[in-house]
Amino acid sequence: MPTATAPSSPELTNVSASTSYLRRDRCRPPPLHFCAQMNANIRSNPSLDSPYFDLAGHIGSRAYCLHNIVYGDTADETATLLDVGVKDLLPILIPPPPVPAPKGVTFSIRKSEGKNGLGMFAAQNIPVGGLITVERPILVAPYIIGLQTHSESDFYTALLQRLPADTVARFMELANCKPASECDIVEGIMRTNAIAITLDVPDVPHPELSTHRAIFLDISRCNHSCGPNARWQWDAASFSLSLVALRPIEAGQEITVAYITPTCSRSERRTKLKTMYNFSCRCDFCARPSSLTSKSDVSRSELQTFWAALPSFEEWCLNPNMGDYALIDAHIRAVSVIESEGLEMLEYGKHLDAIAMGYGALRDVEQFRQWAWRARDFRPMDPEASRVLEGWILDPETFPVWGWRNLAKGSPKN
C-alpha cells in the first residue's frame, strides 16, 4: 500500500456493512477563476454532455456515500464513492451481464514489446464481434469529486481499504504515468487507468455528472492504438464492461483500444496522448511513413464530418434528382476509409446498416442480403438485433423500407 492515508473522518453514519455516508462539504467554493476554467472545460466536453455545468452549484449540492456493490452471480465486489442520489438509483439486485463471459482462456496479460508496461494479448483467434472478456470494476468514483475536505487520493485510498488485500495488490501493480510532483501513487494509478462509464443520475438542480471513473484490473491493461482492434461496451444495468473485437484478432496479437477520439491528425493525437498519458504513440497507424501521414489525416478528418454533410435516408428516398446510389456510395466510401484506418469503432455498424437499407429501398435482393449479413456479423453482442436482421435476410419483403426508393420515383413495385 502507498503511504497515503484514508480520510480522517469521512463517515457520518454506518447504515449497513457496505454503505457509509459522508459529511457534506462546508468549505467555501473554489476561486472564481478556477470555477470559470472548470466550467468551460466541462461544458465544452461533448462526452460529458453537461453544457450548463456550474462547479460552485455542483459542489454545494453534493452528498456522497462510500458503498460496496456485491453481486449474486460472482464473488466480485466494487467499492464506490457515489452521490447519494446516484447510489439510490442502483438496483437492489444487480443482474448478470446480458452476455456471459466466454468459456476458456481468451487473453493473457504480459509484457508489451516496445512499450513500458504490460498489455493484453489474444490467447486464441477471436472473430470480429467476438467477446473477449466481461469484467466488473473494482473502484468507481465521480468524474469530479465535489468535496474539498479531503484530497482525491484520500478518497481513492479509502475505497481501496474496503477491498480484499489481493485486489488492492493487483491495483498497485497497474501503471502510473503521473510524476510524483503531480500526485501520489494511488491517484496516479487511478488517473492513468480509469475508464469512463456512465450511471443514471437524478433529475435535480445541479445534478451529478453521469460520467464516472472506473478501474478494471484486466481491461485497464489494454494499451492504446489509433486504429484499435477492440472496444469497450458498458452495461450500467449489470455494472459490467465487455471487451469486444472490432475485427479478427489472431492468437498472440495485442488487443488494443483507443484512449482518445482518433479522428484528429497524427500530430494532434500524439500531443494529446503525451499530455494525458506521458507516452509518444508508436502504434502501426502513427508509425506509417510520413508520405502516408497527410492522406491518413485527410481520411480521418473526412470521417469526423461525414454525417453532417449527408442527406437523410428519407431525403434520398424522396428526391428523384439524387442518384440511385448516391447515398449508398457515400457509406461504402466511409466503410473503405474506416477499414483502411482501423477505425471500426466509429459507427462502422451504422454504415453497414445504411448500405443495407439503401439496397433494400432499391429492391436489390442480392446486395441487401450481403450487407445485412455483414451488419449482423458485426453485432453478435446484440442477439435481438441479430435475430431481426436474420428474419429480413430470409424474407427481404418484410424489411420495413423495402422498395421505398422505387416507389418514390414512381417505379413499379416489382
From TrEMBL:
SUPFAM superfamilies reported for this sequence: SET domain (SSF82199)
Region of interest called Disordered, as start-end residue ranges on this chain: 1-21
PROSITE patterns assigned: SET
InterPro entries: SET_dom, SET_dom_sf, SET_domain_protein
Signal peptide feature range: none
Pfam families: SET (PF00856)
Ranges in coiled-coil conformation: none
UniProt-listed Gene3D superfamilies: SET domain
Protein name (database record): SET domain-containing protein 5
Species per Swiss-Prot/TrEMBL record: Mycena sanguinolenta
